[in-house]
Specification:
This protein has 196 residues and is mainly α. The protein has seven helices and two strands, in the order H-H-E-E-H-H-H-H-H. It has a two-stranded antiparallel sheet with strand order 1-2. Strand 1 and strand 2 form a beta hairpin. Helix 2 packs across helix 3, helix 3 packs antiparallel against helix 5 and helix 6 packs antiparallel against helix 7. The radius of gyration is 21 Å and the shape is globular. The protein starts with a helix and ends with a helix.
Length: 196
């Protein structure tokens, strides 16, 4: 399979891990998506609101929701967040691998993964892939927690995200994060397109 997808099996595996990570994050954030349903009683004019799970309208504290919520919290805490932080601080950990605590970073398997993630970036910008993963994580969490269905607050969050994306695209285009200039231009145009 790796011969058909690419010549370097570690790079292909690193890409598949990153794509799987994105799917896991999307699945976890879908567990947190809730909405409120307004219903009235026929015999009275009483109006009540009920919070339900957005995927299939199960009540929040049902027997289906609680195990999924606990599992997603555990996976987020022990898998997603450490992986994202490892991608952000991988360069710092490699620089301090002479310490006994961080010597595991220089194992050949871990070093190959970090080298593949950090290959297109200049040496001082090796944190960029982790920063992009954290930004995607923040976007998904921001869109998952639209609990109150308050459009003004939701639009404020969207405008903040658009301003951050436009600023990020401008920084990416100006600073020269990538070794090859055309990759930086392509990535900046993609981020600016997301912001617009």
């Amino acid at each position: 399979m790796t011969r058909k997808l690419g010549t370097n099996p570690v790079a292909v595996l690193a890409t598949l891990v990153l794509l799987s990570f994105n799917k896991i994050v999307y699945t976890i954030t879908s567990v947190f998506e809730i909405t409120r349903i307004k219903y009235t009683y026929v015999n009275s004019s009483e109006v009540r609101y009920k919070s339900v799970w957005l995927l299939d309208a199960n009540p929040l504290m049902s027997s289906v929701f609680i195990p999924l919520f606990i599992t997603s919290l555990l996976v987020f805490t022990f898998l997603v967040l450490p992986y994202a932080l490892f991608l952000v601080f991988g360069q710092c950990l490699q620089a301090r691998s002479y310490l006994k605590v961080f010597s595991w970073v220089n194992r050949p398997t871990i070093k190959c993964f970090l080298d593949n993630y950090h290959a297109p970036y200049q040496t001082r910008h090796r944190y960029w892939v982790g920063l992009m993963v954290l930004a995607r994580l923040g976007l998904l969490i921001a869109f998952a927690f639209n609990v109150a269905n308050d459009q003004t607050r939701y639009m404020a969050v969207i405008m903040l995200i658009v301003v951050c994306l436009l600023t990020w695209g401008w920084i990416l285009g100006v600073s020269g994060v990538y070794k090859k200039r055309w990759v930086g231009i392509l990535d900046a145009s993609f981020i600016l397109n997301l912001g617009i």
